[in-house]
Write a structure and sequence with these properties.
Region (Disordered): 147-175
Shape: globular
Number of strands: 49
Number of helices: 6
Biased composition (Low complexity): 148-159
Helix content: under 10%
Disulfide bonds: 114-128, 132-136, 199-213
Domain Chitin-binding type-1: 91-138, 179-224
Keywords: Chitin-binding, Disulfide bond, Signal
Largest sheet: 10 strands, mixed
Strand content: 25-35%
């Protein structure tokens, strides 16, 4: 609550600042006649002095947010600065809003002595110009570091998060790079013959993608903005049945991560907070909760390491694992330790109710290296591919802070102990965190990060195919859109089709969001992106597969980015996406929620075929009452209300399939058969059996999410008593081991799902 928040910040102000500053490396110029000039980013305008200015907020005539100190006047006693010695910052935060810290000219993990009006260290005009609080001569310190992969981190920053700052400029006259960094802030080097590519990106990394050679490119064969931009928003027809939202309960803890368990309940997982709705027996607040959709009640669960912005997956034995996280906040809760390398296990069962309410288990197994914002994907052999992450929460434009590697956990959730460099992550720094990963039907991985995609073979540790870049803005953190592996079936040989929607231009509350979507068949003979668009730009939008084969997209913002206080213009409307229709006519609009779901929101399918929507905690510590006109924004606060979105197929109370009986709940992905008997609605014309995996949901990612239409025989049109024979997919590339849900649908209307184990 607000009172406890002020106390916590007074105790340790620096450690609750929860945004990682990520600095552009070039002042954006809009005069193409100047040597080395670059184009403005989307949403920026060209000023008379030939500089690019951020667009004004939709809700404000001002171009920039209010001074940071105004926020801290609300949070802390005015005497706090007198109580904290003026020392050098270790994480790039500075000024009165960070305990009076100064910028260290010799810092290795940030550059510059200027403390900006927003309380971050840098050496550009944004930091050293108007509003600069200290060190305004702009002396730069530290070095860019080696882009070679190191998993030894500088000191962690507590709960500071990745935030991309503003640009600086300098002529590219420093010679060829020796480490893959380039441009302003990195000795003004050029890329030359660097293996990743000749273009120096806006953020100071060498590469050959549109993110390197397009808008913001500092040197090399810069191409500038695309000749044919991604499509703008397209009107979509209203769905004949829009569905509807209902508020049904409260989550107990902020819902940063979520998953549907085999007992039919939902687990919410959060970071360390100075307030939640639930307390544990030891008197500390709970940061995880088990929510029962039948009663709409939540109970607190205990964990032992900070799970802030973790990744996760189901193990083959059905346990849910949370991987990585962030540093401890012992001044808030001394019982929770460092989560950067943590592996947390949770066990639930469809048949053993004694496990309900059991706490997380943390026996001490560790990842091979620190990972904050990591993605996890279960492989066909039951191992877990874990990729990316920040080593310490510090500036991602400094390679020494980043972990562009992957590691493998075995089927029991134990790390191999080795972190292996992954080139697509290295190349796309600082947009390398929380990549989209999907397992393909040949056992390889589709990996998407920034604007780039590839097919990667894990066993051989090699890129099989470099796919075309996706048009439009950045698509992954901190401008994440959403990505969905569309339903698989034997009708096209189980060929995968992937859609990526939304995104944004840069990390700031002024950033425009991208309405465009790209659809690709990555294993086709000539894979290309087919472009379409949503009715509006959306960041932090997430797609969830529905049992009828459609996708529902919810949550997000129309302006801004991921990070605390960095988004506005909430997008409240559900969008229904029908992959069976031609590209360009797949969207229709559904019902509107009344609740803003911004940063740290989740959505997932329940056993009854409805969509649970929860979360939104776009503030550093819980705030329950809006405080407008603050920096960072507190217009949108901690949201505990849980909604149920009833999709179109359940509107008007249609008759569902009932009395569903499976001949076995232990299934094998080897082409074997099992029987499904049920009572179908009268007059039915089509019934189907769906194999569904919801995965691990966080930050608009649905890790491991997939759905398969199983082949069936024995259907009798119109009969109410049905007994089908369903055939499992032929291999584990299609259905990796773990818990799944079987849904039976008739006319697209699902019956209640049942958990099964696939081995």
């Amino acid at each position: 609550m607000k009172t406890s928040l002020a106390l916590s910040i007074g105790l340790c102000l620096r450690r609750v600042m929860a945004n990682i500053p990520v600095n552009y490396k070039v002042d954006l110029s809009c005069d193409a006649s100047l040597p080395g000039s670059v184009a403005c980013l989307s949403g920026m305008s060209c000023a008379d002095d030939m500089t690019c200015l951020k667009a004004p907020l939709h809700s404000s005539p001002d171009f920039f947010r209010h001074d940071a100190h105004k926020l801290m006047q609300h949070y802390k006693p005015r005497s706090l600065q007198d109580l904290v010695p003026r020392a050098y910052s270790t994480d790039g935060s500075c000024g009165p809003s960070h305990g009076g810290l100064l910028c260290d000219p010799d810092a290795a993990n940030y550059h510059g002595t200027c403390c900006s009006q927003y309380g971050w260290c840098g050496n550009t005009t944004v930091y050293c110009g108007d509003g600069c609080q200290s060190g305004c001569d702009g002396a730069a310190g530290g070095t860019g570091g080696d882009t070679g992969t190191s998993t030894t981190a500088a000191a962690a920053s507590g709960t500071q998060e990745p935030v991309l700052g503003s640009p600086s400029s300098a002529p590219a006259n420093g010679g060829d790079t020796t480490d893959g960094t380039c441009g302003a802030g990195n000795g003004n080097t050029v890329c030359g013959d660097w293996p990743n590519g000749p273009c120096c990106s806006l953020y100071g990394f060498c590469g050959n993608t549109t993110a390197h050679c397009g808008s913001g490119c500092q040197s090399g064969p810069c191409s500038g903005p695309p000749e044919v931009p991604a499509p703008g928003p397209s009107p979509a027809p209203a769905s004949p049945n829009a569905g509807f939202f209902n508020i049904v309960g409260e989550s107990g803890v902020p819902a940063m991560h979520a998953g549907l368990m085999p007992n039919g309940r939902v687990i919410f997982l959060d970071k360390v907070e100075n307030y939640t709705q639930l307390k544990l027996p030891d008197g500390q607040y709970a940061y995880s909760a088990e929510y029962d959709p039948e009663t709409n009640k939540a109970v607190g669960l205990q964990y032992y390491t900070n799970a802030f912005c973790s990744g996760g997956a189901f193990l083959a034995d059905g346990r849910w694992v949370s991987l990585g996280g962030n540093a401890p906040l012992s001044f808030i809760d001394p019982t929770v330790g460092d989560g950067f390398t943590a592996i947390r296990y949770l066990t639930r069962s469809a048949t053993d109710a004694s496990l309900n309410g059991a706490n997380w288990a943390e026996p001490g197994n560790k990842l091979s290296s620190a990972r904050w914002y990591a993605t996890a994907q279960t492989m066909p052999d039951s191992s877990i591919f874990v990729a990316s992450g920040s080593l310490n929460g510090l500036d991602p434009t400094v390679p020494a802070n980043n972990n562009p590697t992957y590691e493998i956990l075995n089927a029991d959730g134990f790390s191999s102990g080795e972190s292996i460099p992954l080139a697509i992550l290295e190349k796309n720094q600082p947009y390398y965190m929380y990549p989209f990963v999907h397992l393909l039907n040949n056992g390889n991985l589709f990996i998407f990060v920034s604007k780039s995609a590839e097919i990667f073979n894990v066993a051989g540790n090699q890129t099989v195919t470099t796919l075309p870049d996706l048009e439009g803005e950045f698509r992954t953190y901190p401008n994440t859109g959403g990505s969905v592996l569309l339903p698989l079936s034997s009708s096209n040989g189980w060929a995968p089709e992937i859609v990526v929607c939304g995104g944004g231009a840069y990390q700031d509350i002024t950033s425009p969001t991208d309405p465009s979507c790209g659809v690709i068949q990555p294993l086709s003979t000539n894979p290309t992106w087919e472009m379409e668009s949503m009715p509006e730009g959306r960041g932090m939008v997430e797609g969830t597969l529905l049992p009828d084969g459609t996708v529902v997209w919810v949550n997000g913002c129309g302006q801004g980015a991921q990070g605390f206080g960095l988004a506005t213009d909430p997008t409240l409307e559900a969008l229904i996406y029908d992959p069976s229709k031609p590209v360009g006519s797949r969207f229709s609009t559904g019902a509107k929620s009344t609740i803003a779901r911004l940063y740290h929101s989740v959505a997932l399918l329940l056993l009854d075929g409805t969509l649970m929507v929860a979360g939104s905690n776009p503030v550093q510590q819980p705030v329950l009452t809006p405080v407008p006109n603050q920096t960072p924004s507190e217009d949108y606060v901690t949201e505990f209300r849980v909604e149920i979105y009833t999709p179109p197929y359940l509107q008007n109370n249609p008759t569902r399939p009932t009395d569903i009986v499976l001949s076995s709940t232990t299934l094998t992905a080897d082409g074997s058969e099992f029987a499904v008997s049920f009572t179908a609605p009268g007059g039915n014309t089509a019934c189907a059996v769906v194999l569904y995996h919801g995965g691990y949901v966080t930050h608009s990612l649905h890790m491991n999410h997939r759905m398969l239409f199983l082949d069936t025989t024995g259907y009798v049109a119109g009969a109410t008593g049905q007994k089908l024979t369903a055939t499992m997919p032929p291999n584990r590339n299609l259905a990796q081991p773990g818990p799944y849900v079987i849904y039976v649908t008739c006319g697209g209307v699902p019956g209640y799902g049942q958990f099964v184990m696939v081995s």
